[in-house]
From TrEMBL, chain A:
It is found in: Cell membrane. It is a multi-pass membrane protein. Belongs to the binding-protein-dependent transport system permease family. CysTW subfamily. It comes from the Bacteria. The chain crosses the membrane at residues 12-36, 67-92, 104-123, 135-156, 240-259. Keywords: Cell membrane, Membrane, Transmembrane, Transmembrane helix, Transport. Residues 68-256 form the ABC transmembrane type-1 domain. One of its GO terms (cellular component) is plasma membrane. This is ABC transporter permease.
UniProtKB/TrEMBL annotation, chain B:
The lineage of its organism: Bacteria, Pseudomonadati, Pseudomonadota, Alphaproteobacteria, Hyphomicrobiales. This is ABC transporter ATP-binding protein. InterPro entries: AAA+_ATPase, ABC_SmlMolc_Importer, ABC_transporter-like_ATP-bd, ABC_transporter-like_CS, Mo/tungstate-bd_C_term_dom, NA-bd_OB-fold, P-loop_NTPase, Transp-assoc_OB_typ2. One of its GO terms (molecular function) is ATP hydrolysis activity. It comes from Mesorhizobium denitrificans. Keywords: ATP-binding, Nucleotide-binding, Transport. One of its GO terms (biological process) is putrescine transport. Belongs to the ABC transporter superfamily. Residues 5-235 form the ABC transporter domain. One of its GO terms (cellular component) is ATP-binding cassette (ABC) transporter complex. SUPFAM superfamilies: MOP-like, P-loop containing nucleoside triphosphate hydrolases. Gene3D superfamilies: 2.40.50.100, Nucleic acid-binding proteins, P-loop containing nucleotide triphosphate hydrolases.
């Protein structure tokens, strides 16, 4: 391995890297361009003309708002459930030893390893067996299965790095359980929970497969987009929605990135 | 007078493991008390029973006359210096030290002032704004000490606090801890597996083995008059003499101990002494330790620097005063 920081990569490698990045990101730009096209039935290149009218059209379509509201609601509730249950589970698994601990750890992680279609089918048949009608909560339940894993993994890694005697030290110095959680546990796992929560939110927000099995007639935003692509009418509306979603999700992701970066440095230097 | 800490037939069992078994103990107020023993002997469990992290399976624990069973750690006027220091990595040194006062609801200005004063006490003035990660091991140790002392505990527990420090720093801290304890008058209870540390710092030492206390006494008692073979062996490597040998030289059929420095080694043959073969010589600086074989019995002798040394394999004559043979009460 060369560790010389000044050594420059060969020109061919630079070109390959640039090409790779462009390949990944040009399609995103294309989506943005099609949001302004005047052709509404097919994706024609180059666009015959440019217009901003699709923004107004999108704004006035109630089905967009309904789908967006449902997606936000499902993602928010799933993330909240995941943060609470994932953290508790991580605390139990990393801070105490009990019979079946490894099994529980494996079972918690399993949903993210399972193909979504398996999770979807099994949940759907379970719901119909138990006569549970489809609702927001059936979608939330489906999403929570994999959201928990993301939070759990983040929290477990942080708990392993946090020494157990720190909590004992807090008790020893006169703090009760609540004070210890508030002043010692939370600041030490906070950034991990934030990162896990952001990821869980993002996973839930664009989930399609599990949702198709647990949503019934309801439409989350990704499902709405999928349906919309099939219909040859007002296609650019989909692109407008996609563009807004990209721009809006970029901000919290950037925020999470900077927050956890600083947090990791602080937590790491304490070791 | 009320004891600082009192154990009456205290046991702590983990399943079939008797970590602490029917221990009786009385620690006086203002005492520097050491719990000495090998790992797994129950000394740390005893400390955790006093701190409240463990509850006794049976028996009674009192701290300054108040029953402590069932009282959680945060309601005991006892503080601990942890082996790994357990500093809070997200708080700076001053907030670490002030933590105990903060959770008790003492105002910010007052608690930071108290924390500053305590940092000065452990000779870390002006370190308040650093983060724990920026400190050396010795400095972290002092912060941990200050954080425990700021609450003015009646009893301070120290769990192998010097274990992670290098030798020179350890010797300095031993002296400092001793001086600090005398000036504060707080009861210190100190867990260690290092007999040198226990003997040099403590007013009294309890020697633990297998969940039992083998002997409690002053360092001098423990060192000069070990009650059992275990204590003789663990504390300062006394020679353990089997009953047959003791009967031959002092008339009683009993186990006994003999300090290595009590054995005189002569290079010439002498009918009054006991013949022995030199097995090995260990140069220790101030003295040389000699391993001897007496008819199959292994003995160690100490020869101060400057005296003539025998050679390995040489046959020598050893002698000792009969009064130096200490019969052990703890052995049948």
């Amino acid at each position: 391995m060369r560790s010389d920081r000044n050594s420059s990569a060969p020109i061919a490698l630079k070109i390959a890297a640039a090409a790779g990045l462009l390949f990944l990101h040009i399609p995103l730009l294309l989506i943005f361009v099609y949001a302004f096209t005047t052709e509404e039935k097919s994706y024609q290149w180059p666009p015959p003309g440019l217009t901003a009218k699709w923004f107004a059209v999108t704004w006035n379509r109630p089905d967009v708002w309904e789908a967006l509201a449902l997606s936000l609601k499902v993602a928010a509730i799933s993330t909240l459930i995941a943060i609470i249950l994932g953290t508790l589970c991580a605390a139990a698994v990393s801070r105490s030893k009990f019979f079946g601990r490894e099994t529980i750890s494996l079972l918690v992680i399993l949903p993210i390893a399972l193909p979504g279609i398996i999770t979807g089918i099994s949940l759907r048949s379970a719901f119909s067996l138990m006569n549970i009608p489809f609702s927001t909560w059936t979608i939330v339940l489906g999403h929570a299965t994999f959201c928990i894993v993301v939070v759990y993994n983040n929290a477990v890694a942080r708990f392993r790095r946090t020494s157990g005697s720190m909590i004992e030290a807090s008790y020893d110095l006169g703090a009760d359980g609540f004070q210890t959680f508030r002043h010692i546990v939370l600041p030490n796992i906070g950034t991990a929970l934030l990162a896990g929560g952001m990821l869980a939110f993002a996973l839930s927000f664009d989930e399609v497969i599990v949702t198709t099995f647990t949503a019934g007639q309801q439409q989350t935003l990704p499902i709405w987009m999928l349906e919309e692509l099939v219909r040859p009418r007002q296609r650019p509306v989909t692109n407008v929605v996609a563009m807004v979603v990209v721009l809006v999700t970029l901000l919290p992701i950037l925020a999470a990135y900077y927050l956890t970066r600083d947090g990791d440095q602080t937590a790491g230097s304490g070791k | 007078m009320v004891s600082a800490v009192s154990f009456q037939k205290v046991s702590r069992h983990f399943g079939s493991v008797k970590a602490v078994d029917a221990v009786d103990l009385d620690i006086e107020p203002g005492e520097f008390f050491a719990m000495l023993g090998p790992s797994g002997s129950g000394k740390t469990t005893c400390l955790r029973l006093i701190a409240g992290f463990e509850q006794p399976t049976s028996g009674a624990i009192s701290i300054f006359g108040e029953r402590a069973e069932g009282v959680p750690p945060y309601r005991r006027n006892v503080n601990t210096v942890f082996q790994d220091y357990a500093l809070f990595p997200h708080l700076n040194v001053l907030d670490n030290v002030a933590y105990g006062l903060m959770v008790k609801g003492i105002g910010r200005a007052e608690r930071l002032k108290a924390a500053e004063d305590t940092l000065a006490l452990v000779r870390l003035p002006g370190y308040g704004s650093r983060m724990p990660g920026q400190l050396s091991g010795g400095q972290r140790q002092r912060v941990a000490l200050a954080r425990a002392l700021v609450n003015r505990p009646k009893v301070l527990l120290l769990d192998e606090p010097l274990g992670a420090l290098d030798l020179k720093l350890r010797e300095n801290m031993q002296e400092e801890l001793k001086l600090l304890q005398k000036s504060l008058g707080v009861t210190f209870i100190f867990v260690t597996h290092d007999q040198g540390e226990a003997l040099s710092m403590a007013d009294r030492v309890a020697v633990f083995n297998d969940g039992h206390i083998m002997q409690i006494g002053t360092p001098h008692d423990i060192y000069q008059r070990p009650a059992s073979r275990f204590v003789a062996d663990f504390v300062g490597s006394s020679n353990v003499l089997p009953p047959e040998f003791v009967k031959l030289h002092s008339g009683q059929m009993r186990w006994a101990s003999l300090r290595p420095e009590a054995i005189r080694v002569k290079r010439e043959q002498d009918a009054n002494g006991i013949p022995a073969d030199v097995v090995a010589l260990n140069y220790l600086g101030a003295s040389t330790r000699i391993a001897l074989d007496v008819n199959g019995l292994r003995l160690h002798a100490m020869i101060p620097a400057g005296q003539p040394l025998p050679e390995q394999g040489e046959r020598v004559t050893i002698s000792f005063n009969r009064e130096q043979i200490h019969l052990m009460d703890g052995e049948a």
